[in-house]
Amino acid sequence: MWILVAAALAFAVLVLPQVVTDDDKTSFAGSVLPSGGDSRLPSLPGGLPSGLPSGGLPSGLPSGLPSTSAPGYGAGQPTGGGGTDGGSGGGGGSVRTQEPATPTVAPDPTADAYRAVSPGDCLAVYDTGYDDYNTRIPYRVSCGAGNAYMWVSAVRSSGGACPQGPGRNYMSYTSRGQTTALCLTRQFKVGYCLLAKQSGSGAQARMNAGLMTAVDCDDKRVPAQYNQILHITGVYRAPANASARNCARVQGDRTYYWSWLVNGGRTLLCTMIYQG
Questions:
Q1: Helical ranges in the chain per DSSP H
Q2: Are 132 and 60 within 8 A, CB to CB?
Q3: Which residues of the chain fall short of a pLDDT of 50?
Q4: What is the pTM for the complete model shown?
Q5: pLDDT of residue 104
Q6: Beta-carbon neighbour count of residue 9 at 10 Å?
Q7: Quick one: where's region Disordered (predicted)?
């Protein structure tokens, strides 16, 4: 758990301390959209829920990110055996043999997709909140696309070699004894929403955010481990001693913000509970 203490705005009449955490198990500074933009994720074609990336993506990796087991090899059998052509009159027969066929190796498109990813690529991957990613295939997209949720900071031979911290994680795949781990940094965008779990209220309130998650802001149901939807209001270069006080968007702003330092502490992520 990553725990920060955030304060309500200096402009508020009552100052209530906030304790914020994130639930990344291993753990993006993003671009800021114009203020006043749509609070929902952009509508994209496809069969996924509104606001989530399209493309008919397959089922996701588990949140704990274990490596996927390697596929088997195709079976190859010799096509011919030694045969004897007996000659008449007691003469010696000739023996005909055929070389055994070389076993064929089954193709592995998933391994190929992982190996095609390079540092600096962006992926249409996010945590669904149900202990898995939306896809087990690392689909590459333009980093300016609406579904570019992850930025690949590095490619390693194990997830343990990836940078850790809030808003960071990895996804890995093992094929034929070789592991490819993609180190992920979340790209946060104003107007998008995250899943979170709040416990307590007032001075005792705690907010546990799924910083790698993405969700339609208007979703009526959330995964059991969450009970709040947070709306991203700002993504800023973190000033010295950054806190929720730095999330004010206008003078006299009385909004109650929850904030996190992400991207290795270089970026201030500001959120509020989604109001609809």
A1: 109-115
A2: yes
A3: 1-20, 25-90
A4: 0.65
A5: 79
A6: 18
A7: 30-113
